[in-house]
Hints:
Blueprint: E1 5-8, H1 13-24, E2 30-33, H2 41-51, H3 55-58, H4 78-87, E3 96-99, E4 102-105
Parallel strand pairs: 1-2
Antiparallel strand pairs: 1-3, 3-4
Amino acid sequence: MAKITIFHNPNCGTSRNVLALIRANGEEPEVIQYLKTPPSAQQIRALLKALGFSARELLRQKGTPYDEMGLGDPKWSDDELIELMHQHPVLINRPVVVTPLGARLCRPSETVREILP
């Protein structure tokens, strides 16, 4: 079986759906509950590189301190946003899935099919 990793929030319906799609494909992924075990700044940088995203593209606004922290202001650098995502993992959009075929922010859930073996 190929190594698959999902950055998962069990309270998120989309994240639960993606996990179910991976398992329905016959794979058992490494499940990282990133709210309990926040990725390091270095891990976030690696995810961004794999996704081809800027830090801003991985930010989650809904249900986070995004607005109260003023993160919509373009003054924030990628390095600053990455550090904030490390300190406040709720700011990381989910679910992110990494497989040997690539990485995707799986919104909508079916996006995961593009990278399943």
